[in-house]
Amino acid sequence: DPFSFNNPYLITRSLYPENQETPIHFIPSNHTPDHLFFRRNHFPYPTLNQSRFWIPIGGSVLNPTIFSNYDLLKLPSKTVNTVLECAGNKRNFFEPNVFGEQWEKGATSMGKWKGVSLGTLFEITGLEKDAKEVIVEGYDYGNRTDLDQIYTYTRSLPLEKALHPDTIIAYEYNDKPIPFKHGFPFRLVVPNWYAMASVKWIKQINIINTTFEGPFQTVDYVYYPKKENDEGSFLVTINNVNSTIQQPLHMEKLETGRHMIKGIAWTGKGEITTVEISTDGGETWSNAAIAHTDGVHDYTWSTWSFDWMVSEKGEFTILSRARDSYDRVQPPNPFWNQKGYGYNAIDQIKVKVE
Ligand code: MTE
Ligand code: MO
Fold first, then answer.
1. Dist. CA 3–CA 20, nearest whole Å
2. Is the CATH number of domain 242-353 2.60.40.650?
3. Per the database record, which ranges form the Oxidoreductase molybdopterin-binding domain (predicted)?
4. In angstroms, what is the span from residue 251 Cα to ligand 1's centroid?
5. pLDDT at 52
6. Quick one: pLDDT at residue 50?
């Protein structure tokens, strides 16, 4: 649409590789459109060629098989509506600050992915009895300066998660082929897990009977809770319960009267049960109204809204606190860790009423 010049742009955190986040106040409550989908890359974009349309599956399988795009399109399809949130989303708000992409609140998306369950492919290849993990490698690669070696972006999943019917090799996003920057032609989509697990531009899949030790799972995407050493570390996997206020804007000036406070809430375990709002910096709380996305529960975020009547002038701190069906609740303080993953402290903005 040549007249869509009013579209908001992504906010660039780094250009090469390209890391950009969504201006969260513009993100619609339903599926994230391509132009607002955050981009998170560890390496330059890979170049596309015809070999990309085949996925070899090997290792601890009975029948190693190369699946073509035609094979994949013919197999029973599976659609999942899911949030994909970067584990580093909101990293910028950790105190003390941590190194890494300084994401604010927009490294998150929600969309409709269609593809084939990984389990469907393993029905064809068979699995050896001692199969333990599924390694998925992407086509993008580059030098990791910290390790002084070239790596591809490669991750593994425990067999149980890989076999979940909603873990898919996707070939469509929002009813169209996946946009190139988001993994075309094939991308792994792992609902409920932070998005580092959802490997873009799949090159090959290998089943192993050991524990994968690639750097994107032994160096990165590990919580290191201590400042001085690596004691007590554990892997980043499922999303924490979280919420983000989309409206009003942080530091917005408002007039006295009625204002709609609204936003999104999501979790990697169960579903969102309540979102509480405070307009007095946490002294009192009230429930927001939650709208679950029209029957498509899946792994979507919930939108919520709260009608705020404000008659006094002054500065106000507005907070949102989500809770899920496992009774996980956003904490007042984030769980600090060296690499700044999984920030989910109570969301906060300030406004001035004049
Ligand atoms: N897959 C490949 N091949 N290369 C990558 O750098 N980044 C991961 C994941 N999959 C990555 C990848 C991370 S950390 C995130 S948050 C998501 O992709 C970002 O997906 P997006 O760029 O489609 O938003
Ligand atoms: Mo990420």
1. 23
2. yes
3. 42-214
4. 31
5. 80
6. 80
Shortest-distance Cα residue to atom 13 of ligand 1: 196
| Centroid of ligand 2 to alpha carbon of 101 (angstroms) | 9
> Is the CB of residue 199 below 6 angstroms from any atom belonging to ligand 1?
yes
| Proximal ligand: closest to the CA of 199 | 1
| 288: pLDDT strictly greater than 80 | yes
CATH number for the domain formed by residue range(s) 11-220? 3.90.420.10
Tell me where in the chain the CATH 3.90.420.10 domain(s) lie. Answer: 11-220
- pLDDT the model gives residue 298: 84
Is 71 a residue whose pLDDT tops 60? yes
Distance, in Å, from the CA atom of 72 to the CA atom of 70, rounded to the nearest integer, reads: 5
| Rounded CA separation 180/195 (Å) | 17
Tell me how far apart the terminal alpha carbons of the chain are, to the nearest angstrom.
39
- Give pLDDT, residue 4: 55
Which of 110, 198, 222 has most ligand 1 atoms within 8 Å of its beta carbon, as the pocket-test mutant? 198
Position 296 scores a pLDDT of 54
**pTM: predicted TM-score of the whole model, two decimal places:** 0.96
CB 135 within 8 A of CB 205: yes
Q: Among 32, 40, 188, say which to mutate for ligand 1: greatest number of ligand atoms within 8 Å of CB.
A: 40
What is the token pair recorded at 256?
């006295």
Q: Across the strands, what pairs with 112?
A: 81
